[in-house]
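Go through this fold for my students:
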Amino acid sequence: MSGTPQHFEAMFSPRSVAMIGASKKPAKWGFMIINNIVMGGYKGRLYPVNPGESEIFGMKSYKNLKEIDDSVDLALVAVPSKSVLQTIDECCEKGVKVSIVITAGFSEASEEGGNIEKEIVAKSRGAGMRIVGPNTMGVFSAASSLHALMPPVRPKFGRISFISQSGNIGTQMLGLGQKRGIGFNKFVSSGNEADLKCTDFLRYFGDDPGTDVIVMYIEGLEDGKEFFDAARSITKKKPIIFFKSGRTDAGARAAKSHVGAIAGSTEVYDAMLRQAGVIRASTTDEILDFSAAFAGLPIPKGRRVGIISGGGGWGVVAADACASVGLQVPDLTNEVKEKLNKLLPHYWSKGNPIDLVASIDVKSLSGVFSIVPECSNIDGMLMLCIVGVGHLLSTNFFGLDEKQMKLLRDIAMEVDIKSAKKIIELIEKTRKPMMIAALSSSSESEGVRILEEHGVPVYDTPERAAKALAKLAEYGEYLRGKN
């Protein structure tokens, strides 16, 4: 039984939230969650519930839900497991639309816990209330600035929505994404999925106008066919990035004790995902690598890649990386070579990859950047060690005086910023993806910061950039009916 749009609205855009088990003690989850909600700037009405406190975070604390003279859309339940059933009864009586049960110790822990979990669901459905979890780390929603999460993460707002059966991995991905400039629209830690399943959230995100990319961390699916049917109907309009853990016997046992998930055959999952057009991530790094690419870049029309490198060695590495993931590195047309001859020193590589031979002339670089993406036999670009090299001048290795060092740093900064802005302009103009591999982070490079601010992902190695580009190409082939 899927949730209704009204249930999801109450979950991700609640007008009022009750924090049941709110606490003043920093070591308690009831403190951490309500602190995150307050610090995150939630726009609705927030009601702490704790019979032992009269005030929490400067707000009146209520002994129970009945004392709240207002309707409650969303209840967050962080009470001991022995008190959860009674709390759910109170939520049902209050007319709460959705309850997120943070508390663990149910089907993932024991048969008895599983029976209690079933009773929780039966009571909730009888009252028309839906349950997230139990054993969850909460939800995040950019639209209502709702950070109803256990860990203190502040995701950047964006267009990616994320379903994770592991709250720990899910929230850490939000935190890592924030550091890389990757923005999220909604997040749910689905936990044990006693009631609402990952496929229910998938369908909702599939219709959500604020979501462009869907990410899933999954340990097991209860109904593979239901997921397959939902995924296949969604992937024609928006990509799904899917990471499946529990692929080994050891991982499957861990998944069972974690969220009570039954892990299926890796071969079956691979076949199902391929047929449904779902993008498979093989590592946790790839979850963010692929998500960033799909959220910020156009889908290429083919697998042909133009490589521009600040040095010859990186170009060779990039060519190998492209070939290893099924991308092609074609030669440049004679017309393009003739244009590049006028911009680069005579000893440039005369082919693809294009070695810029350490050029730092802004006008020449801008010309090269403009010419290559417009080449008729290039579908996407891989650009290496061009943006984000200025930090190498943070130490005076050259023994220059202060004036000379300032001049050199100013030149490097100009190249950094103008290159980033030119790349953004060309992505919009050519509608071709441009994958950037840089030696710096946004805290070290203004160019990297500008790129990430505009949604252009920046990778730390050409291998990671090439893999992400290959996934964009794979999805493009799926949309064109080529696989």
Q: What stands out?
A: The chain has 16 helices and 19 strands.
